[in-house]
Design a protein that fits this description.
heterodimer; A: 181 residues; mainly alpha; Rna Polymerase Sigma Factor, Chain: A; Arc Repressor Mutant, subunit A; globular; B: 422 residues; mainly beta; eight-stranded antiparallel β-sheet; 3 helices; 35% strand
Chain lengths: 181, 422
């Protein structure tokens, strides 16, 4: 007979397999580095594993791992300003896919623009426009008020608009600070 | 019109590399985290009860400072290590607060054959006051401390060796990605020596390791020496120091780089003592705060000490033989160890048998201002210790192989126990 511990491990493994890439991609959008994204994903899932006996509802799990990811990243960025070592001579990045030149260029430009958005605003944008969260859900993930989410969204979009110019059209931004509330 | 979500989707799907994360490992790490939290909560509860019981008297009683923890606080006794009775296999430190030890996990080693390389890594973030397991038992040939929470391990897989780094104080480990050569060691990366892939038996080559991104790249320009097997490369005063053997002559030499490994200035010690029959040994390097370095070359019968002085020349400096070291007795163990104290004094090791005990210990010889060496007794340092190491911020540490105690010092002259095994 399968033990309780084995059953927990199996369930965690299934959840991890199903959600790993989603979490990892969100982490990458936040930090802009796949290796760092792996570390953030790891930290988030370790916290989930440590609390596995308490959280079982899949909806609650998604929110929990999202909160862990966001707060781990923001915590690390605060340390980054003081302690994280900066590599000056950049190592070669991972090769891109087989997309056409235009889409690759658009992706690179957007990624560069995203990196110019301050971390907290960037996390807000990722939660709102990549993960599709509403203002209230984003506020829970960031541990702040809904008003802060709106202002962070507005400022983040302003930065993106400034960098991207016409590449990001006005209709996309219109009412973005409100979102689905 | 470009939808914002499409842009995010495209950016997130830009050819991600395969993930190294494994469900079982994360689950195990999560379980360990939960156990630690439970233990910490229990300890806090116990501490609260004890504090209430013992009152303020316990807080104002006479306490003895543990050297090496300046600014960390005071405690009455050195920290006690977990895994009581086990042997300390290795000690490393990033500074006086962040300490690491690998402990034997095989008690039967004392009575029979065992895998001595399987160890339990333990760490302290409070200068040795408290210790915790970092991950589970690991089969590792060696460790290096790269920063307060950054470690490097040479992990064994049968006869294969792989490099792995940890950025969370040894709790989890990452394999390294090899990337194309770089001209110099980038800021934030670390110089290290490692063989080329699939050439495990070949001499190591100088590499740049970025512990944050888990990438390792060979340097374009390599020192003109067959480098020693030490993984970590000595670094001080903006210089990299690499010891090895000059391939054409077979003589010991040292290569120094002042530009992070971009170029190397190599000096071969032609007048070094004749080597042992089999081969010459690579010099033992010791550096302090400044640009002065010492190289100890041990031959078949004698040792020689060379001092590197920055003379402002194009090469940056030159090596001069320290004749006063010739008077230090050459022991049969051919001990090459030495270290440089905080005041710049060079201290040599001499192996000597311990009276009434079936083991060897060391006697120390310190260089005077006139270049001669005299026997000295660093305060509180037992004779039975492994080579003394120095962190980049100038804290000294070593462990005793006799009684399993970690010792620390802020100047190399005055030593105190930091943690003991039982």
């Amino acid at each position: 007979m399968r033990s309780h511990e084995d059953e927990d491990r199996r369930q965690f493994s299934e959840y991890f397999t199903a959600r790993r890439e989603v979490v990892r991609h969100s982490a990458y959008l936040m930090c802009g580095d796949w290796h760092w994204a792996d570390d953030l994903t790891q930290a988030a899932f370790i916290r989930v594993a440590s609390a596995w006996h308490r959280v079982r509802d899949p909806q609650a799990l998604d929110a929990f791992v999202r909160t862990c990811l966001v707060r781990t990243y923001l915590s690390e960025t605060r340390r980054v300003w003081r302690r994280r070592e900066r590599v000056v001579a950049e190592m070669p990045d991972v090769a891109g896919g087989s997309d056409d030149a235009e889409s690759v260029a658009r992706r690179v430009v957007f990624a560069q623009a995203l990196r110019q958005v301050p971390p907290r605003q960037r996390v807000t944008l990722v939660c709102r426009f990549y993960q599709g969260l509403d203002v209230a859900e984003t506020a829970v993930a960031l541990g702040c008020s809904e008003g802060t989410v709106k202002s962070q969204t507005s400022k983040g979009l302003a930065t993106l608009r400034k960098v991207l110019g016409d590449a990001l059209s006005v209709p996309v931004l219109a009412g973005a600070t409100g979102g689905k509330e | 019109m470009t939808e914002l979500r499409d842009l995010f989707e495209a950016a997130a799907n830009s050819a991600p590399p395969p993930s190294r994360l494994v469900a079982d490992e994360l689950y195990a790490a999560g379980r360990r985290r939960r156990r630690r939290q439970t233990a910490a909560n229990f300890a806090v509860a116990v501490a609260l009860v004890m504090t209430a019981g013992t009152g303020i008297a316990a807080m104002v009683s006479q306490e003895r400072s543990v050297r090496g923890e300046t600014g960390v606080g005071r405690q009455s006794v050195p920290g006690v290590l977990p895994h009581g009775g086990e042997r300390i296999r290795w000690a490393g430190a990033a500074d006086a607060r962040h300490l690491y030890l690998s402990m034997s996990t095989q008690p039967r080693c004392a009575t029979g054959p065992c895998v001595k390389t399987v160890v339990q890594l333990v760490g302290s973030d409070d200068g040795g006051r408290t210790w915790s397991d970092r991950g589970g038992p690991i089969d590792a040939a060696s460790f290096e401390v790269l920063g307060p929470s950054r470690l490097l391990a040479v992990v064994l897989h049968g006869s294969q060796r792989t490099l792995q780094t940890s950025t969370d104080g040894g709790r989890t480990w990452h394999m390294l990605d090899r990337v194309p050569p770089v001209a110099a060691v980038p800021t934030g990366s670390i110089a290290m020596c490692w063989p080329e892939p699939n050439k495990a038996a070949s001499p190591c080559r100088m590499h740049a390791l970025d512990p944050g991104s888990h990438r390792i790249a060979p340097l374009t320009n390599q020192p003109a020496l067959t480098l020693s097997d030490d993984v970590r490369v000595e670094e001080s005063a903006g210089r990299l120091w690499a010891s090895g053997i000059d391939p054409p002559t077979g003589r010991p030499g040292v290569a120094v780089s002042r530009d992070a490994g971009g170029t190397w200035s190599t000096h071969v010690f032609a007048d070094a003592p004749s080597c042992a029959r089999d081969r010459c040994l690579a010099p033992y390097l010791a550096t302090g705060d400044g640009a002065t370095g010492y190289s100890v070359v041990v031959g078949a019968q004698h040792r020689a000490v060379y001092r590197y002085v920055d003379d402002g020349s194009q090469d940056g400096g030159s090596w001069q033989r320290v004749s006063g070291a010739d008077s230090v007795p050459a022991d049969q163990s051919r001990s090459p160890q030495s270290f440089v104290t905080s005041d710049g004094t060079h201290v040599l090791f001499e192996s000597v048998p311990q009276r009434d005990r079936d083991l060897d210990g060391y006697r120390w010889w310190a260089a005077g201002s006139d270049g001669t060496y005299e026997a000295v007794e660093p305060d509180g340092l037992p004779a039975t210790v492994y080579p003394i190491r120095r962190t980049s911020d100038g804290w000294f540490y070593t462990t005793s192989y006799d009684d399993e105690v970690l010792y620390g010092s802020t100047d190399g002259w005055h030593w105190s126990p930091v943690a003991r095994g039982s």
